[in-house]
Amino acid sequence: MTRILIVLALAVLLMPAPHNSKPEAVRPGALLVAARALPLDTHDPAVRRVGSLDYLGGWELTSDNPGFGGISALLALSGGDMLALSDSGVLMGFHAGGGESTRRPFIAPLPIRTQDRDRPWWAWDSEAMTHDRVSDRYWVGFELQQAICRYAPGFARVEACRTWPELVAWPKTGSIESLARLPDGRFIAIGEMGMTADGRHDVLLFAGDPADAATPAPIHVRYAPPQGFRPTDAVALDARRLLVLNRRLTLQSLFTATIAIVDLPERIEAGAELKARTLARLAPPLLADNFEGMAVSREDGRDVVWIISDDNHESFQRTLLLKLGM
Fold it and tell me: Does the domain at residues 29-113+122-325 carry the CATH identifier 1.10.287?
């Protein structure tokens, strides 16, 4: 009975709605984050591999700042610096791994437009984030608003926002969870619960900036995740490979996750199926929680995958950051 109640509570927490545990307001300032190293396998600390990925490190992150946590999106910056975004529109910058940080740890709310200042704090259900290193601009997907916004370098201001009818067609409680920018400037948005007639996840492929008024309507393609899982984040490794983070909540195992790869065709046609191939599965006794954010960095000639969990600002969940080598 206890496990059933936990699953029901977690299912409610996954809904994009105002929870009492979420902070109503966050003031910009410094952020102190503590990191406790963890073994991959709670029963065998010698385990250093999961699926086809190497376990390079894992940490439980904590902070006395009440705004820390609830992380739904992640970017890996240079030198081990990380940029995280909560599902309440809160940015967090901190350092992970070795080396010296080039940025000061911080916490701050996302900038908003003047016309949006009367929106309630819980409406900023930011679930996805991507970045263009050349222009240093950022894009954020909002689940409840079913919109995508573009931000100036350094998140200095909102440059543009757009709500698409294709996004509005997705359920508000399972809308945009994944947003990835391809090297050629196209964008891929995946609906967590926006489904196609054949049971696949609806995917929108934008020919350009999805926040720009001049961008034409996206084409629809389909994502086939590992069986029983739903996508929570995506990042492009290159023009032909897309990594997708997937989540499942069950009575038996609670949260489990898979990291999957999609081989993108050279030309993606409307209706094409993007089929996931599992690289790693995280389930007990391995570290497992509500993994929602994923980022990729490059170290010593190899791709490094980072994933982070959303603790929903609840004491019985954790903010876990895992580092995995491809």
Answer: no
